[in-house]
Amino acid sequence: MNDKKFVDAIFIELFEKKLSQYKESLTKPVNNNKDSFARARNAIALLDDSQKLDVINFLKVVIADSVSVVLGTLDGVHFPDDLEGDFAVSFDGEEIQGDLQDIFIEKAQEAGAYD
User: Fold this and answer.
1) Secondary structure of residue 39 in the 3-state scheme
2) Run means of pLDDT, 10 residues per run, the chain, 115 residues
3) How far apart are CA 79 and CA 47, in angstroms?
4) CA 10 to CA 108: how far, in whole Å?
5) C-alpha angle with apex 99: 96 to 100, nearest 5 degrees?
6) Exposure on the CB side of residue 20, measured as CA atoms within 13 A
7) The whole model's pTM is what?
8) Phi, psi (deg, nearest 5) at residue 87
């Protein structure tokens, strides 16, 4: 059960909190700031509303794929750059690895990340 609790916490942090912050920042009025958000906001401002939404929704794919790589590596089913070895992941003394990636991908699919 702790594996689901762990994935839920990660999912909420990224898909609900961070994605909302990204969307808010990217839809603010254009300005002359030079930080990463301002540069992205200024570029996205050139698009129509539908295209802006497409770009923002693509962030779901980026988040889901990034987390999937990390969780798959911890689960021992994905080996980036031949990083092979055994990981020991536990939460409150309970081993939670093995299904983290699957649980997360299912939640991402339910949230429409790959639509």
Assistant:
1) helix
2) 94 96 92 92 93 94 96 92 87 92 96 91
3) 38
4) 11
5) 70
6) 6
7) 0.87
8) -105, 150
105: tokens are 């991908």
Q: CB 77: neighbour CB atoms within 10 A? A: 14
Q: Which residues sit opposite 94 in a β-bridge?
A: 91
* Domain spans of the chain, in order of start: 2-110
Q: Got the DSSP string for 48-111?
A: -HHHHHHHHHHHHHHHHHHHHHHHHHHHTS--GGG-------EETTEE-TTSHHHHHHHHHHHT
d(CA 23, CA 25) in angstroms, rounded, equals: 5
Q: Which two tokens stand for residue 53?
A: 């939404």
AA letter at 90: S
